[in-house]
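Many introductory courses stop at the sequence. We go one step further.
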Amino acid sequence: RLRELLDQQEGVRIVGDRFVFSSEVLFDVGQAELSAAGRAEIEKVARLLQGVAAVIPSEIPWVVRVDGHTDTVPISGGRYRDNWELSQARALSVVRYMIDAFGFPPERLAATGFGQYQPVDPANTPEARAKNRRIELKLTER
């Protein structure tokens, strides 16, 4: 059902069992605070996930894993020491927004940062780097 509803959303790709958002849709360059457009995109998914969560049997131990990914361009200066820290901060920003704005239970969310270490496209091109800067949401078992 989530796949059907999100399939036509701009800035969201469905890859296997994950919902993938381009970082440019959610964040300003080098930042981890959700932009206004980013909050609007996460709101759509959060509301859908709330509906799905309401019908998952209570005995199933599920979580929404929010994974942050960056490209390989090193960070210079700024608040974050490296891409790994930035990816973790972005994932945590999404998780906190889901808790604060939508009352998502914290025990049903996990924030993980992968930095540049799990690229979807290993090429060293602007297009590949753009694909690698992303947030992935996955409904999974704990």
